[in-house]
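Subgroup meeting minutes
Present: P.N., E.W., G.H.
Scribe: E.W.

1. P.N. recapped why we're keeping a running log of single-chain structure predictions: easier to compare across weeks, and new members can see raw inputs and outputs side by side.
2. G.H. added today's entry (411 aa).
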Amino acid sequence: MKAGLEIFWSDAHLDGNQTNHQRQLCLGVHAISGDEEENIPLNLCLVLDHSGSMKGQPMETVKQAALSLLERLQPQDRISVIAFDHRAKVIVPNQLATDLTGISSRIQSLRTDGGTAIDEGLKLGMAEVAKGKKGTVSQIFLLTDGENEHGDNERCLKLAGLAPEYKISLQTLGFGDKWNQDILEKIADAGSGSLRYIEHPEQAVTEFAELFNRLQSVGLTNASLLLTLSPQSRLAELKPIAQVAPDTIELPLQQEAESFLIRLGDLMQDQERLVLVNLYLGKLPLGEQVVGQVQIRYDQPGLGENLLSAIYPLKITVQNPYQPAPQAQAQQAILSLGKYRQTQMAEIKLQQGDRTTAATLLQSAANTALQMGDKKAATVLQANATRLQTGDELSESDRKKTRIASKTTLQ
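Output recorded in log:
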């Protein structure tokens, strides 16, 4: 298994008569399997809300979803389960997935009671999954249906921020309409994961299964990009880097020696992580020019850590006369980020009470989704724009669907 990189430009040509240029660079990063690859053991921790509000069908469907995952684990995989209400406890300590009958019985024994302390559940979950992370793909699935009323949201975010250092990815699932979408999204973003919305209890099995499919396709872990720019190149000052697939996330930067370090998390074999970089380029000579380089650093569970890919030069062609050469992959990535940021701005305007501008921004986001071919997201965004235009309020469900539609391509 090794890391691969594809490079696309918003325009692969520069005008030789201009002294300053802006270009978007799209980087597609993924794991490439060899001829004979063994499956990497999984190390999965389920952190499940069993507060009083989960009583009845919600709790039963979550149990069913958890049990369906157990059936897909192999004997070399590891599993742990945490349950939390206003406290948290270990239901299944980290162990090999061999005693499925015993593990199933403990999950089945869960009863609903109490309030919600997400940070307590997350803390115990990280402690349990850390026990089995050597040589595995380690992830936490965190599910809740409520606000962190007995916990501390800042503590949640601090714990999530530690996850990449511990080589753990965090996936969050919001159940029903009462959970805090800002907090669950920030936890997933900080933990290099994704946010899922379970609107109806019967969707739990499907959402768990889709996350598990993504987990099974991971080939490399703890991946980062090392981006080095030439003296004629610089990053945009405001939000210069974002991931746009599989989910849209604004990515923070760290300086490491002469390079910028961009954390990505796990790399999948069947789906690229697409990263969009906003660059400014100065005056360059005519012909093909190298304006920087990219290298991938990653772990291959069981075989090595801090491995390095080949160095990929960032090449662009300076012309006179100039002929534009837009590349479709980069253009699509730009649209994805535009959809996300337009929706974000709409939410801010809605919070400020400016419904007219919010509706206009959602309409723009819907049009952007259509340009991408993301018809389902366009439908969600357009419907909510229309609701605002006709004087209706957006329900909690509407807001959550909008957030999900902004971050990913709906299936």
